[in-house]
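Re: the 161-residue chain
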Amino acid sequence: MRSLASIHPGRIPGVRRALLLAWALHLRLYRWSRGRIGGRLVGLPVLVLTTRGRRSGLPRSHILTYLREGGTPYLCASNGGLPTHPAWFLNLRAHPEVEIEIGPARRRASARVLTGPERDRLFARFVAAYAGYGAYQRWTDRVIPIVALEPIPAPAIADPT
C-alpha cells in the first residue's frame, strides 16, 4: 500500500476541489486587478491563457506560469506531474489559436508544441526557475510538453483615403 506522501495531492479527496476553487479565485483577482494581484506564482510570472474547448468549442481560461524568451512566452504543460496532459494543452492542440493576457495586455497567439533539443532546453529553464517541474517529470511517464505562444500580428487597419 502506498503512503499518502506518495499520492499526488490532486488525487487526495477534497484537494482537487480546493485547488480548482483557488485557481478560479486567482484568475478573478488577476483579471480584476489587471495583473497587479496574483501576477506571480512559485516565483514565476503568470498569464491567462484562453483556449477554445476541443469538444464544446467554448472559451476556457486558465492562469498559468510562464517563461519568456525574446518576445515569446512559453508554457510548461506539467499538470502537476499527473499521468495525463492538462485540459488546456489538449484544447490548444485541437485549436492552436489562443488568446493570452499578461497584466492588462491581451493578444492573440499561435501555440506551437516544442520538440527535441528546443523542448529540452526550455524545460531545463523551467526546472531552473522552479525545481517542482523536475519533480513533476519524475512523477510521470509522459514527456511534459513545452508550448511556445507565438504572437499573431494584429491585422492592419486600411487607410480610408
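Helices lie at 15-32, 87-94, 116-129, 132-139.
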